[in-house]
Each structure stands twice: as C-alpha cells, then as structure tokens.
Amino acid sequence: MLFKNITVLRADGTMLENVNVAVKDGRFFSIGKELPWGEWDSYDGSGRLLMPGMVNAHTHVPMTLMRGYGDDMQLDRWLFDRIFPFEDKLTGEDVYWGSLLGIAEMLASGTTSFSDMYYFCDRIAQAVIESGIKANIGRGISCFDKSKRFNDLPAFHEMSELIDSYHGEAEGRVLIDAAPHSEYTTRPDILSDVADFAASRNLRVQLHLSETNKEQLECVGRHGKTPTIVMKDTGLLNLPVTAAHCVWLSDIDMEVLAECGVNIAHCPQSNLKLASGIARVDKMKKLGLNVALGTDSAASNNNLDMIEEMRTAALLAKGITQDPCVLPAGDALYMATRAGALSQGRTDCGDILDGYRADFVVLNLNSSEMTPNHSTLSNVVYASCRSNVEMTVVDGHVLYCKGEYLTMDIERIMHETAGRVNSMLAR
Ligand SMILES: [Zn+2]
Fold it and tell me: Which sign does the torsion angle of CA 266, 271, 272, 273 carry?
C-alpha cells in the first residue's frame, strides 16, 4: 500500500505535510517526500490525515452486552443488582458475540489494539483473531475463599490453557497477560502466587488499582497499607504492570508506582460516570509515569470511543488543576496512542515510524468540524469525532474503510447480540 501526498501526525503531535507513506509486510516501509521504488497499490491522501491507531489500555469488551443496562446508580447497587446477575447468565458464545460488537465499535472509532480483562477469554481471543485487531487479554483472577490456593482456581487452569493456545498467536496480535482483578477481590497470598506464575511465564500484568476512595480506605483498614503497597509487597510490581484507574493514589503510592515503572490506564469517563473521582494525571506525568488511556467497559462509559476519551482526559486535567496549559493536545494524543502501545509491551507499535508495525488510522479532514485547519493536532484532539475515521489498518491490513468492515459481518453481529441479550433477560 502506498498513501500518496498525505499528512502524517505522529504520536508526539509532530506533523509531516504532503508525504508518501509506504506499507509493506505489515510494517511502515518508508515515510517521506521520496516515492518508493516498485509497484504499489496507491491511495490518494490529499485532504487526509494518517495517524497512529489508538490503544484502549483498559476495557472489558464483552460488556458491550450490558451497555445501558444499569445507569445512574450507586456502585454497589450497580454491581450487585445489575452487572453480577447479568454476568452469571453469560455463556462463552455470548462473550464471543459481545466481543465482536465491541471490536466493531473500536475499529470504526480508530482503535487498533486493546487490553482486556474478563472470562471466557478463549472466545475473546477468537473474536480478536477473526476481526484482525490486536489485544492483550487477561483472565480476571479473584478469590477470597480461604480454603483455596491459586492452583485450585478455575482462573489458574483457564489462564494456563490460554497461554498455551493463544499467547503470541496471529503473528503476535494476541498476547495473554496475567490479570489479578484487584486488592479488594483477591487475597494477598494469591496475588503473590500470581506474581510468581507471571514471572515464570514472562507475562505482563493488568490489574485495577485505587479506583474508589472506599477501596483505598478499606484496604488500609484490612492490611494497614494502601492497595499500591499491598501489590508491591506481593511482588507484582516487579513485573511489567498496567494499573487501571489509580484515582485515589496517595503521593507515596504514586512515587512507588513511578519507581516500579508501572503503566497507568487512566479511564476518565468511567470514573466520572461511576462518580469514583478524578485521577491526578498531571502529577503522574510529572513523576514520569507512562499514562495510557482506557474506556473501561461499555457498561460504565457507555461507549468504546477513544477519540472521546482523549478529549475528556485533556479537558478534565485542565479543569481539576484550573490550569488550561495542563495536558496539551500533543500529550493527550500520545496517551491515546504510543503510551497505550508501551503499556501492552508492544514497543514497535503506536507511532508512525519506519519499521514500526503499520497500525494506523486515516481521518478525512474534509468535514465541517475539521474546518478551518489552523492546527490539525488541535482539530484531532478537540474537534474530531468517529465519523472522521475513514480507514483503520492493523499490521498493514485494512479492517475498516468508509463505513464498511472487511473482516466482520456487522449486521449479523448486531442481530446476534440483540437476540442474545433478549433471551438472556428472559432466562
Ligand atoms: Zn475495569
């Protein structure tokens, strides 16, 4: 593929005007004014912008099935009256179709990779492989039963099978992470066993951390230390970790996470909707933490649109600090792209550079909300919307173009998911 005469926006916000971008064998082959030698499948890039695909660093993709099923409720009631009873009825087949629905939404809004924590993860992996998107998938681990060891848990066996069957599958598009759910759902000795297991299998780790004030306070009551220190003492923070939310971190927690090189998955819209609070992203960035962005699930967002998430992150950081210079557009773009790829351990993804994986989005700049073009970066972060996404490409494969899915039957996916939700509610 050769994109001629196109504008390139890199992850750090720098621009290249009117360049030619060649993609070969799933990677960027050449980017510049020169036309590459040879025969190419050409695409006219005038009036178009080529930017890195966005990385959704924290979600639970099958929960698209619960979109709108419980809103405007206290967290406890939302979980215990709506989400948990619904999840009790889910089958692997439901999870597969719900995953496809979420992936379709992500591709149409410019996301090329996501990090997920759920169950029936083999079905999520199959949806990822078939659709062509990338994902780091973790089987959520939680246990308070004192009679059980980590090796006794179904999650341990499912995780082991997942690693054997799917880790590195589809030319590395699928990676399996260890996913201890959180301090408040898991005993510390089990967290330690997960850390040992993840280290022995060379896995990355996804977990939830300090999402609510209640979680933070109850943990201190239970263990005399914060969730961050509990996680550190179990050995988990010696591994490459992505910690979602991090709303209620103390200053010391933040310093510990920075020392351990933990990646943060900031989920501003979910934190707002569940009234969890507002993470101190400005301080995290000053400490050098890699802060990525996630939507969290469609049950608490209620969409998987990373363009919206990027704008919300930028606006919220300004509002909470009362400083409009905080989290400028280039930083927000980096969080939505390269920081997410790094949080997944995908060091050759998330930017438009020679030799990097060709995961990118083409935006159409010929629209009312993108006009006039004083600053393309500003328009992308502060004015664009998913309808500007013309093409989404993963590893050089076009998966979505001008409203059409090339690997997915969207009509069937919507029909199946609606039907499954109805029959589940009837049960
Ligand atoms: Zn979550």
Answer: positive
